[in-house]
Automatic annotation (TrEMBL):
It comes from Faecalicatena faecalis. Belongs to the metallo-dependent hydrolases superfamily. Phosphotriesterase family. The modification N6-carboxylysine is found at residue 147. Signal peptide: none annotated. The lineage of its organism: Bacteria, Bacillati, Bacillota, Clostridia, Lachnospirales. InterPro entries: Phosphotriesterase (IPR001559). This is TatD family hydrolase. PANTHER family: PHOSPHOTRIESTERASE-RELATED, PHOSPHOTRIESTERASE-RELATED PROTEIN. The keyword Nuclease does not apply.
């Protein structure tokens, strides 16, 4: 029996319930907040209310997708989880460049030291801070997932170093890795590199491919490798409407990929109701799933996507 590592401790996999594997609960300290107002999720009371709304709608578990040194606060996430009753899985690893200054240690630390740091966060506990200097205060709250990213340049230079460190940390600890991509670009090369670090395909979650839902052969090509397709741009209407996303989901299910599909919202402040945004973290439960049912998706298909697949993707 596998388990899910949450900020309040281990949870047996059958207790995961409805799970959205790419959300953002609370972000603090990072320099990105200075120039990106949509990332200012730094009101803990508002974040807790958002989680309570998600819980009331039927949400049980989610992943907070900000890793070490990008504004993640392990103590705040634990408090938010305890108050709201939502099981929160936190991330170690690294993120996109906007979260770091040019002289940040993420760009210069040797690969082996990064790997060791990520492993410690998964097995001992997450560090606080790290946005401006090397993290020094370690909690006993363990991360349950590794976050990594690709830019438009794909697997090259420093990104290759970071991806190797993240991949080996995940492989050593039996943990999954979520990979930020730009529309899926470079995903196949990254999957191969991660496999070379000992990480199996079914331990990899590919993010953001549904930022485009017109050229579906790209989706099929990535899914054919055996990874999880984390479709996490629901409520990002600048990329697509619900009807287009639903057509894409139906296509991928009909192609045989039902067991590899995950859905989430990857929200920013302008899309969380308790930050005066337009949709809310409960949008999938209150609006999107009813839309799926109207389009003929069965209850079993929806349970597979929102409960069974997250269980397989996130358990250790």
């Amino acid at each position: 029996m596998g388990y899910i590592e949450t900020v309040t401790g281990r949870v047996e996999e059958e207790n995961i319930g409805h799970c959205q594997p790419h959300e953002h609960v609370y972000i603090t300290q990072t320099p990105a907040l200075l120039t990106n107002p949509e990332l200012r999720l730094n009101n803990l009371a508002a974040s807790i209310k958002e989680l309570q709304m998600y819980k009331k709608a039927g949400g049980n578990t989610l992943v907070d997708a900000n890793p070490l040194a990008t504004g993640r606060d392990a103590l705040a996430l634990k408090s938010a989880s305890e108050v709201s009753g939502v099981q929160v899985i936190a991330c170690t690893g690294y993120h996109i460049p906007i979260f770091y200054r040019e002289d940040h240690w993420i760009w210069s630390t040797p690969e082996e030291e990064l790997e060791e740091l990520f492993v410690r966060e998964l097995t001992e506990g997450m560090f606080l801070g790290g946005c401006y200097g090397w993290p020094s205060y370690q909690t006993d709250i363990r991360a349950g997932l590794v976050k990594a990213m690709l830019t438009n340049e794909g697997v090259s230079g420093r990104t290759e170093v970071l991806l190797k460190a993240a991949g080996r940390a995940a492989a050593k600890t039996g943990t999954s890795l979520m990979l930020h991509t730009e529309y899926g670009k470079g995903a196949l090369e990254a999957i191969q590199l991660l496999k070379e670090q000992g990480l199996k395909e079914n331990r990899i979650l590919i993010c953001h491919v549904d930022r485009q839902v017109e050229e579906l052969s790209i989706h099929e090509e990535i899914a054919a490798s055996g990874v999880f397709m984390e479709y996490d741009t629901i409520t990002l209407f600048e990329f697509h409407d619900n009807e287009s996303e639903i057509r894409m989901l139906r296509h991928m299910i009909d192609k045989g990929y039902l067991d590899q599909i995950l859905i989430s919202t990857d929200p920013t402040a302008d899309r969380l109701k308790n930050y005066e945004g337009r949709c809310g973290m409960d949008y999938i439960l209150t609006t999107f799933i009813p839309a799926l049912k109207k389009q003929g998706f069965t209850d079993q298909e929806i349970i597979q996507i929102t409960q069974e697949n997250p269980k397989k993707a996130l358990c250790r």
